Amino acid sequence: MFLGSQDIQLGVNESLLDTSKVISSMVDGVMARVGAHEEIETLAKYSTVPIINALSDMYHPTQILADIMTLHELYTPAGQQPHDLDPSTTLKNLRMAWVGDGNNVLHSLMLQLPKVGMHLAIATPKGYEPHGAILEQASQNAAEFQTSLTLHHEPKQAIQGANVIVTDTWISMGQEEEKKKRLEAFAGYQLTTEMIQANGAQADWKFLHCLPRKQEEVTDDVFYSPRSHVFQEAENRKWTILACIDQLMVKKGF
Ligand code: NVA
């Protein structure tokens, strides 16, 4: 069952509690893309079937599965197969630079990357840092897995030594009215080949972006270059979502 925003106005015509009970009576699992993260928590609280977060304003966990799968494929040594290896071996000690907004995609990366042994250096403009509580949790994860997590306000500080450079839109869903203010705040954050190389990325740096992509955050010479793996990453959204659904079915005993 696909329920788009025209079919179901979550929390508008009906309480989330009631919607959660009705939908979960009809399906074996739900993938929900919401606005405020509290909405998915309410759905999960009252649902009788598993709820997968397909994006909230705080997290984008399924995106990070595709990112990790893509990097795992890219860093699998020649002659070996990704499915024979664990990402915590192929990705260990790689450095990711996030240059952009402290948003939902970044939050999920911050929490997850330590678990595969990756270091993360973040550059955001002042006032656009990741959420404090998530930073705290992510720092604990980094300490537990002995990875580094650093926060900066200059792109070059994050890019220095990076293997993988990542960004996302500066204007996430629901922030459209802040567009003008955000474009001003992110001046100097556009990724270009020249800027990445001048700021000391590793010689074989790679680029990822969760899509959809806007011109302002990254130029075509990066986005469409051989260093960019954004379309492989997009395809991997399919395989990772299928894996999530597969797990859900396993849990249900299918
Ligand atoms: N940060 C973006 C991700 C889009 C897939 C948003 O929330 O709109």
Automatic annotation (TrEMBL):
Residues 92-245 form the Aspartate/ornithine carbamoyltransferase Asp/Orn-binding domain. It is an enzyme of class 2 (transferase). Its EC number is 2.1.3.3. The gene is ARG3. One of its GO terms (cellular component) is mitochondrion. InterPro entries: Asp/Orn_carbamoyltranf_P-bd, Asp/Orn_carbamoylTrfase, Asp/Orn_carbamoylTrfase_sf, Asp_carbamoyltransf_Asp/Orn-bd, Orn/put_carbamltrans. This is ornithine carbamoyltransferase. Residues 2-73 form the Aspartate/ornithine carbamoyltransferase carbamoyl-P binding domain. Belongs to the aspartate/ornithine carbamoyltransferase superfamily. OTCase family. The keyword Protease does not apply. One of its GO terms (molecular function) is ornithine carbamoyltransferase activity. It comes from Actinomortierella ambigua. Keywords: Amino-acid biosynthesis, Arginine biosynthesis, Transferase. One of its GO terms (biological process) is L-arginine biosynthetic process via ornithine.
